[in-house]
Design goal:
By secondary structure, this protein is α/β, with parallel strands linked by helices. Helix content is 41%, strand content 14%. It has eight helices and seven strands. The strands form two sheets. Strands 4-3-5-6-7 form a five-stranded mixed beta sheet. α1 crosses α2. The structure holds zinc ion. The site of zinc ion has 8 residues, from α4.
C-alpha cells in the first residue's frame, strides 16, 4: 500500500459521499492532514453527534433535535394543521420555510417511489400520512414532491390514496426546474408554485 492506512481510509470514506470522486477525496484528505486550524477535530465532533443528536418528528417525520417529540413547525400553535404539504426530504421543508409564505404543516416522506431502486410505498412514510389524514381535520394536502419521474409517480400514487378520503388534493404548479430538486428552487419560484397549485381531483 502506497499510502498509510489512516490516509487511505479517509480517502475511501470521502469517496463514498455523493458527488465526490477519488481526486477530490484525496485533495480533501490531504487538506485535513496539513491544515493548522481545528477543522478536523470540529468535523469529527460534528459527525459523531450527527445521528445521536437528531431524531424524526413523530408527527411529520421532519428532522428535529434528539429528545423532542415534535419539530419546530409541528410544535408551533400558529401553524394551520388542516393544510399539509407533502415533501420528499427535510431539505425541502427548509426550502419552503425560507419563503415564509406557507402557513400550514408538512409531512416528510423520506424519499420517493422508485421501482428501479426497489423503493415501494412501505419504504416511505405513506402509511403514517394516511393515518394522519384519517385522524386529523385535514382539509387540503399539497403534493410538493420533486418535479422528477419519481416525484411525479409518488404524487400520482398519493392522489389515488387520498382522494377517496374526501380531502382536497393539489399539486405544486409547474415552473419548477424539471428534474431538479425543490431545495434548489429560488424563493420566488417556490412561492409562485405554491400560489398556483392545481387541483388533482
Ligand atoms: Zn413535525
Amino acid at each position: 500500500m502506497l499510502l498509510p492506512a489512516p490516509i487511505q481510509d479517509l480517502i475511501n470514506a470521502f469517496s463514498r459521499l455523493p458527488g465526490i470522486g477519488p481526486k477530490t477525496a484525496s485533495r480533501l484528505t490531504f487538506y485535513m492532514l496539513r491544515t493548522s486550524d481545528d477543522l478536523p477535530e470540529e468535523l469529527a465532533r460534528a459527525l459523531s453527534t450527527l445521528k445521536s443528536g437528531t431524531t424524526d418528528c413523530q408527527r411529520c417525520f421532519n428532522i428535529t433535535t434528539a429528545g423532542r417529540t415534535l419539530c419546530e413547525v409541528c410544535a408551533n400553535p400558529d401553524r394551520d394543521q388542516s393544510l399539509i404539504c407533502i415533501v420528499e426530504e427535510p431539505l425541502d421543508v427548509l426550502a419552503l420555510e425560507r419563503t415564509e409564505g406557507f402557513p400550514g404543516v408538512y409531512h416528510v416522506l423520506q424519499g420517493a417511489l422508485s421501482p428501479i431502486e426497489g423503493i415501494g410505498p412501505e419504504d416511505l412514510k405513506i402509511r403514517q400520512l394516511l393515518q394522519r389524514v384519517q385522524q386529523g381535520e385535514v382539509s387540503e394536502v399539497i403534493l410538493a414532491t420533486n418535479p422528477s419521474m419519481e416525484g411525479d409517480a409518488t404524487a400520482m400514487y398519493l392522489r389515488q390514496q387520498l382522494l377517496p378520503m374526501g380531502v382536497r388534493v393539489t399539486r405544486l404548479a409547474r415552473g419548477l426546474p424539471v428534474g431538479g430538486d425543490l431545495e434548489y428552487a429560488d424563493q420566488n419560484t417556490l412561492l409562485r408554485a405554491l400560489a398556483g397549485r392545481q387541483e388533482m381531483g
